[in-house]
Design a protein that fits this description.
83 residues; elongated; DUF1272 domain-containing protein; DUF1272
């Protein structure tokens, strides 16, 4: 089951579980669409994988299967970004 991390790893923007703005790679590294499109060019700076839209968990399932509350922030995430 996806963790649905609550924020962008690059800019720390909030990404609630119902956000259409969240992007993830196969390792569930999580970024906002702005960082993904403009800074990262669609490539995860951690693993080099493709960043795609994160599925949204239906609201009625969040009570039983809550999203993660662990924020992952890497102030240096752009150092490894594709140029």
């Amino acid at each position: 089951m996806l963790l649905l991390r609550p924020s962008c790893e690059c800019c720390d923007k909030d990404l609630p579980p119902d956000s259409s703005d969240a992007r993830i790679c196969t390792f569930e590294c999580t970024f906002c669409s702005d960082c993904t499109e403009n800074a990262l060019k669609g490539i995860c700076p951690n693993c080099g994988g493709e960043l795609v839209a994160r599925p949204r968990r239906p609201a009625e399932k969040l009570a039983k299967f809550p999203a993660s509350t662990e924020r992952v922030f890497n102030a240096n995430c752009l150092d490894n970004a594709a140029t």
